[in-house]
Amino acid sequence: MDFGELIFEVSGRFPNDEKYNLISQIRRAADSIALNIAEGSTGQTNKEFRKFIGYSLRSLAEVVTCLHKAKRRKYLNDSEFSAFYKQAFVLMNSMGAFRATLKERK
């Protein structure tokens, strides 16, 4: 949730002509990280929950790609990009580790 809010905040500094392109894309992907985890946690099987965490991981990868694009377009400096990239890396590892704990019950 916190990562998504940080992405929302920083993307607000992108140029206005990115409003319907990169800003919209990165915000939707960042929101999708938490939303998929929430949806998957609602009484589904562990197998189903793992699938939704997979969707969240894909959304996180999409955010990272958008961050790369923002850096290339000079909307983020190297330091900002590095900080977001490190946060995304930690989040990805945490989500992957959590997903690995969700073994299918027999």
List the helices and strands and how they pair.
Elements lengths: L1 H10 L7 H22 L5 H27 L5 H24 L5
Helix pairs in contact: 1-2, 2-3, 3-4
Helical content (DSSP H or I, runs of 4+): over 70%
Average pLDDT over all residues = 95
What Rg is obtained from the alpha carbons, in whole angstroms? 15 Å
Distance between the termini: 32 Å
- Backbone shape: elongated
Order of helices and strands: HHHH
Instruction: Tell me the strand percentage band.
Output: under 5%
Largest sheet: none
Structural class: mainly alpha
Instruction: Please give the count of helices.
Output: 4
Describe the structure.
With 106 residues, the chain is mainly α. 78% of the residues lie in helices and 0% in strands. The protein contains 4 helices and no strands. It starts with a helix and ends in a 5-residue tail after the last helix. The mean pLDDT is 95.
Q: What labels describe this entry?
A:
single chain, 106 residues, mainly alpha, elongated
What's this, in brief?
This protein is mainly alpha-helical and 106 residues long. It has helices spanning 2-11, 19-40, 46-72, 78-101.
